[in-house]
Amino acid sequence: MKRATITIGGDLEKALQSYTSRQEVPPSFTALVQAALREYLARRGAARPAHPLRITPAKKGSGKSDVSQRHDRDFAADA
Fold first, then answer.
1. Is 78 left (phi over 0), alpha (psi -120 to 50) or beta?
2. Mean per-residue pLDDT, 32-49
3. CA contacts within 13 A on the Cβ side of 47
4. How far apart are the first and last CA of the chain?
5. Do 32 and 39 meet the contact criterion of CB atoms below 8 Å apart?
6. How far apart are CA 16 and CA 59, in angstroms?
7. Predicted confidence (pLDDT) per residue in 54-71, tens digit
């Protein structure tokens, strides 16, 4: 893994803070930068996404009725 030091402008810092403050489970700065870089490179054909998102539906009667609304909480619990 390569370590890097980056400097971001005030506009990006505000956008990052705004985004993370709206998340139920705020991602780390590192996770955000890595995801953004992966998406940027994938859109330009330089890299493929690390792995596709695979969602397994809950079995009928799982007892969870709010998964579509509270998915961040459930994914964080599984991590």
1. alpha
2. 85
3. 11
4. 21
5. no
6. 36
7. 777 666 666 666 666 676
Place of tokens 């995801």: 35
Element (H, E) at 14: helix 10-21
The pTM of the full predicted model, rounded to 2 decimals, is 0.55
Domain residue extents for the chain: 10-52+69-78
3-state secondary structure string across the chain: CCCCCCCCCHHHHHHHHHHHHCCCCCCCHHHHHHHHHHHHHHHCCCCCCCCCCCCCCCCCCCCCCCCCCCHHHHHHHHC
